[in-house]
Design goal:
Rna Polymerase Sigma Factor, Chain: A, mainly alpha
Length: about 170
């Protein structure tokens, strides 16, 4: 046999678990029935930890008070979780492998159809992150000339890329 506290806890569980479960079930919303067992279990865990605090003349009301607090904590957690989830944006669908291959091939074909100067300006800008000022320095031209070259190269690339998508 166990200690007197273990015996008392077993008796409390046997006598009052159904009443605690019914109390929580009737007040479960907005939680779901799937949460019911966890809430009863959490209530009994608190009772087990605080077995010496359970008054002899008011066991069920005291346990219902514990269940009430457990239920309020669960509702607060659900409320915080719902609020947090409402701030999240839905992740966009990832493109299929086929879409990526086709897009990569189209980009490659459009780039290869450009002359070397256009391709170099675009790659320095897009891949190496150079702005028009840095392009001017890298290409030994003025910032204005770099901006014009970049704009024209981008326009030619868009034309070639659009043509590759139609085919």
């Amino acid at each position: 046999m166990g200690s007197p506290q273990d015996d008392r806890f077993r008796r409390l569980v046997h006598e009052h678990t159904a009443a605690i479960g019914n109390y929580i079930r009737r007040r479960l919303y907005p939680l779901t029935l799937a949460d019911l067992d966890d809430l009863v279990e959490e209530t009994l865990l608190v009772v087990w930890r605080r077995i010496d605090d359970v008054p002899n003349d008011a066991e069920l009301p005291w346990m219902i008070g514990v269940a009430r607090n457990v239920l309020r904590n669960a509702r607060r957690s659900q409320y915080r979780r719902s609020n947090f989830e409402s701030t999240l944006s839905v992740a966009p669908d990832n493109p299929s492998a086929e879409d990526l291959v086709i897009a990569d091939a189209s980009v490659r074909d459009a780039l290869l159809s450009l002359n070397d100067d256009d391709r170099e300006v675009l790659m320095l800008n897009a891949w190496d992150g150079l702005d028009t000022h840095a392009l001017g320095i890298a290409l030994s031209i003025t910032t204005n000339a770099a901006a014009v070259r970049l704009t024209r190269a981008q326009a030619r690339f868009r034309e070639r890329f659009a043509a590759a998508q139609v085919i």
